[in-house]
Amino acid sequence: MKKITIVGITGYSGLELFRLLSFHAEAEVVAVCATSHIGEKLADAVPQFEGLTELVISEFDVDLAMKNSDVVFFATSSGVSLKLALPLIEAGFPVIDLSGDFRLKNPDDYEKWYKNTAAENVYLSKAKYNLADLTTATATYIANPGCYATATLLALAPLVQENLIDLTSIIVDAKSGLSGAGKKLTESSHFVDVSDNMSMYKVNQHQHIPEIAQQLHDWNEDFEALQFTTSLIPVTRGIFASSYVKLADSVTFDTVKNAYQKCYENKNFVRIRRQLPQIKDVVGTNFCDIGLVYNEKTNILTIVSVIDNLMKGAAGQAVQNFNQLFGFAETTGLQFMPMI
Ligand SMILES: NC(=O)C1=CN([C@@H]2O[C@H](COP(=O)(O)OP(=O)(O)OC[C@H]3O[C@@H](n4cnc5c(N)ncnc54)[C@H](OP(=O)(O)O)[C@@H]3O)[C@@H](O)[C@H]2O)C=CC1
Ligand SMILES: CC(=O)N[C@@H](CCC(=O)OP(=O)(O)O)C(=O)O
């Protein structure tokens, strides 16, 4: 049984982490932290938790966290863990960080894309970016992948790893539900702007572009760049990523299908679907569902990947990384059917 501190409990990913970890057979949440609602019972701040917890929201105290828990989860806005987590890194204390602060190896990339000063290299180098379906968490500081990056990388992994496509041809058009934007209300997140609507945002400027590129380049050093766009759609949860690539010379659709089967055959949370997947197929689950269609006339392969941004895109994958880190069965606390 591992004792857990969650920082960022009042946010959407923090609440989702609490939902998962409260009924996890190997976890006990011992502290929940934020900067608002300090001293208030969690069940008062979040009334839907009434009768489910006696925990009180506190300010994050790094010494107390290390004394009373075995691992800290940061579900905080970007720019927070890069300050608060430094003593944990120095102590080699286990951390799972859902934010983007430790995902990029090059601090210049973080400064460019997140428009903030990066953590120093000495700290960044201790973090391991772990896409939990493809590698196993081992380092004590786990940088949990971003939501769009997860859907995109799982869609492209077999193609890029096995060199099956023209690496200059990758176009990804990804769409997210509103919970991906976090709880802070902005002009663009009003019901009136989001419902019955769809809008593209951060075109060529999305902070997941360098994260995706970093991982694709690690898999295949010939990869240089991709076209990546993000849109907001009127659903609460879910990412729908459509990726388009040209197959390399003499690569057939059968070869491609075999590569996906091989890559994901023993994976608990990636399903290669016979029909094209929809967002509702994965809402409430930790699955990434993938569907493939090939057009012989254009030589273009369409890959559809869907995830629940709060599950596989955030808290679900974080729990998967937690399970791996501590040697629990990977599916512990994560076995859910999709919600209708
Ligand atoms: N939402 C999603 O689908 C995904 C989110 N992420 C990433 O996960 C992180 C959390 O996202 P999300 O839940 O959407 O964000 P929210 O904006 O909903 O929540 C942010 C949380 O961080 C807390 N917080 C902010 N500053 C501090 C601080 N200094 N000390 C302690 N707590 C603090 C806030 O609490 P308070 O208001 O009380 O200060 C709040 O609980 C972000 O980095 C996000 O980019 C990653 C993948 C998907
Ligand atoms: C719908 C929506 O606004 N989504 C957010 C996802 C934010 C996120 O997850 O940010 P990091 O992974 O970089 O921490 C966005 O596109 O910026």
Describe this entry's structure for a reader.
The chain is of the alpha/beta class and 340 residues long. The protein has two domains: 2-145 and 312-325, Rossmann fold; 148-309, 2-Layer Sandwich (Dihydrodipicolinate Reductase, domain 2), CATH 3.30.360.10. The protein is built from twelve helices and 14 strands. The protein has helices at 12-22, 42-45, 62-68, 81-84, 86-91, 107-114, 121-124, 147-161, 191-194, 208-219, 253-264, 311-325, and strands at residues 2-7, 27-33, 57-58, 71-74, 95-97, 127-129, 141-143, 171-176, 199-201, 227-232, 239-246, 270-272, 288-295, 300-307. It has a seven-stranded parallel β-sheet with strand order 3-2-1-4-5-7-6, with helices on both faces. Strands 9-10-8-11-14-13-12 form a seven-stranded mixed β-sheet. Strand 13 (288-295) and strand 14 (300-307) form a beta hairpin. Helix 1 crosses helix 12 (311-325) and helix 8 (147-161) runs parallel beside helix 10. The chain is globular and about 65 Å long. It starts with a strand and ends in a 15-residue tail after the last helix. It binds NADPH dihydro-nicotinamide-adenine-dinucleotide phosphate (NDP) and N-acetyl-L-glutamyl 5-phosphate (X2W).
Task: Spell out the key features of this protein.
30% helix, binds NADPH dihydro-nicotinamide-adenine-dinucleotide phosphate, 2 domains, Dihydrodipicolinate Reductase, domain 2, 340 residues, 21% strand, 14 strands, seven-stranded mixed sheet, 12 helices
